[in-house]
Amino acid sequence: MxxxxxxxxxxxxxxxxxxxxxxxxxxxxxxxxxxxxxMHDHKRTLKKIQSISAKGQQKALFLDDYRPYIDGVLxxxxxxxxxIIVTIMMWSIDAECIDDxxxxxxxxxxxxxxxxxxxxxxxxxxxxxxxxxxxxxxESPVLPEHLTALYELIGKTDMPDQVRVxxxxxxxxxxxxxxxxxxxxxxxxxxxxxDRCGVKQQIKALEKQLQSDDQQSEDEQNSDSADTPEx
Length: 231
Known about the structure:
mainly alpha; elongated
C-alpha cells in the first residue's frame, strides 16, 4: 500500500481531529479503525517472516503507510492513549529509523502513554532495552547524538538493573570518541550494577586516555607560561 499525497494530507487531518472529537459517529474520524485494520494485516505478514533482520526491513517498508497518521497525532499533541503510536515507535527502532523512533518516543514519554499488554514492559523499559540492544550491535545506526537524546529522555526513569546496564553500556561505548569523560561515567555506572557486563578494559583504556590528555594539556600550559616574557 502506497499513500498518495492527497490521501496522506487527508489522513494527517483526520488523525489530528480524531483525538479532539467525542463523537464516534463521524465517518471522517474513522482513521484509527483504518490504521488498526492495516496494522493487523501487516502483523500477519510479519508473522510469516522468521528472520529478525528481514522483519526489520519489512517494517521499514510499512512505516511510510503510517507516517501521515503519526504526523497528524504528533501535531495535535493531545496525548491520548494510542496503540498505533507506541507500536510504530517500536517498529521504527526495529527498522533502524532512529530519528523517527526518538521523535515518537519523546511524545510518548511526555504524555505517559502505555505499551500494549503484549510487550510485557513499561514504556521507558521497552524503549531503553530495544534501543540499547540496537546500539550495541556492530555497525549500529545509533549515533552519539541519538544516545545523548535517549539518555536525556529516559536515563532518570525507573527500570530493572539489567536494562539499565544495557543502557549505560550502550551510551558508554557509543560516546567513547565524541565525549570520553561522559562515556567513562556511563561505563562506571554499568559496571557498578554488573561486574560482568564486559566493560573493564574499556574503562581502563578511557582512564588512560583521559590521564594522557590531562598531562598533555598541563604540559602545553607550562610551555605557554615558559614562553611568556616577564613584564
